[in-house]
Write a structure and sequence with these properties.
The protein is built from nine helices and twelve strands. Strand 9, helix 7 and strand 10 form a beta-alpha-beta unit. About 10% of the residues have low confidence. It is about 30% helix and about 15% strand. This is Alpha/beta hydrolase.
Length: about 325
Amino acid sequence: MAEGNWFRRGVREIGRWGAVSAALALAPAGTALAQDDRMTPIAIPAQPDAITLDTGPLPGAKANESWHSQYGSRFARNVTVATLTPFLPDPAKATGAAVVVAPGGGFRTLSMENEGWDVARALAARGVAAFVLKYRLNQTPADMAGFEKSMREMFSGTAARPPRPDPDAAMAALAPQIADSRAAFALIRRRASEWRIDPDRVGMVGFSAGAMLTMATALAGQDAKPAFIGNVYGPIASIKVPADAPPLFVALAADDPFFASSGFGLIESWKAAQRPVEFHLYEQGGHGFGMYPKETTSTGWFDAFANWLTMHGYMKRAS
């Protein structure tokens, strides 16, 4: 696969450290929210607009989908069937552009609210159709106590790190998520007329693990081919960039504990390939800031992303 070393390194980091943005263990500092950091089980919320994708159930899954709340936000885990939820703009404001939104969570959970629905609503308010991808996840303990224990072990400073997975095996393990992403693009383009979308103006933005999935979707050389991509606090190590790589938007906090210390190879690679790239490095924000209100300039990432889309013509109606 064209992702090469960048994707391998990203997979290793996600694999070694577990549910990065799902636990948000490092993200809430400085938020304007005063919510409890405990994980509280909740009922699966009604999702009447969610469309089941045709990728089928996760092979070998034994635990059923469950949800919990933390920091005033909702998270899904043990997702075994992928869905896509449309957030369509007012027809009077619709630009014809669309974005697949991929929440993060270390491929173990999904930050459905902070990195999914809230992002999609903000895009729809700007006239861009947004589709939240609830992709299939690696299984975790079914009970909350078991899940919390596994999280504590992963983030413990004294616990031994899990062995590094074989890179090729790790990439193969993401095949379900990549299949879900491809299915999302196929569905959107198939129903583009119904949703008033230009099939050639469909991009993707992802967060942490979702950013990895976004990059894999764009660079795997398969049929999804996003028109543009956004990498929000995902890995930014160097990569071989194809000649037709889409415009890339990157946002990262300088104090991100996972991906801020490996240099800016991804940006340099895009520049070397003479492909459009925009990079925002925020002084503070940690990991997993998403749409949380915080007293840091990282909260400006969404406006920056919207302005970038405007510069590329995606906020204007197609002629």
